[in-house]
Amino acid sequence: MKPTPCRLALTPLLLLAACDRGGSAGPMLVSGNGQFRVLHIAEAQWKGDRGRTEMESALERLPRIDLVYAHNDPMGRGAYEACKQKGRAGIKFVGIDALPQEGRKFVADGVLDASIEYPTCGAAAVDLALLALHKIALPKQLILGTRVFTKANPAGEPIAGPGDVMLAALRGEQAAVLQQPPPAGGKWKIGMAQCTNDEPWRGAMNADIAARAKEYPHVELVLQSADDDTEKQRTLVRQFIETGCHAILLSPKESNALVAPCKEAMAKGIPVIVIDRKLGSDDFTCFVGGDNLAIGKAAGEEIKRLLPDGGNIVEIQGLMTTSPAQERHQGFVDELQLARPK
Predict the structure, then answer these.
(1) For residue 205, what are the CA distances in angstroms to 126, 184, 195, 315?
(2) Which of 15, 111, 193, 269 is the residue whose CA sits 20 to 30 A from 334?
């Protein structure tokens, strides 16, 4: 996932992880039973090359590393490449995203030992926009489940999310509504303001949105990228309003900065479907995203399976001012019952 700053409050444990960057010789976090020790925590901001650099630093300092937990697969791969270059064998790797040609392939190739899916929610967002246009009542948020991919289970082990059943029910009950064009004829015009195209997971989301829109002959999709520029994304939302988009999809770069244009859209009766990262207010129709806490806990479960006797862990984080990174860390902490050593 692409780094995007947003103004989110950090819990004390998250603040520790965000600020205490692996300078001490002892563990930064340790499980209650003492089996799991997190010896190095580094923020690589979702970038594979930075994951490699941070791993090189950890390898220089730590003689024994048993496992690397990376908040996304590109950083996991970067860490793997650093270990390979340094000749450090026997280290296991757990990543997140599980795109078919990225994380799942890394697992099949033996680069990662496990990858936990982060759903793009692209198809769901298009369907939710269409339902909203037909005045179908939607839940304020839909949190979808995940799958865990390992070499032993290349098809993925599903972990249901609370929104899966609701989404399936909506699609089933409103199947006919999804096929209906605007009452006045023509097409529904849906604008998508993507925060950036500059990374594989965002590309996968765009592809899923475009593929779903193509299934509906009565939908015209306008997909634009803000190129990692908050002001440009604000402008895109306002352009969608001015050019007559019936609904707007949005994956915010910054939670609070996108509040004003979304409020303007809602005031004009234009549904706003927020994807992946939450808005800094309630000025949207429905939020749909993955369950990053559950994903972090699933990563912790895989770590326990891979290290049945415990071990030394390196955590390579995304950007800790974003909710996905915070929650992926917190789920991992909760599952392994980690805390700052006394």
Answers:
(1) 11, 30, 11, 26
(2) 111
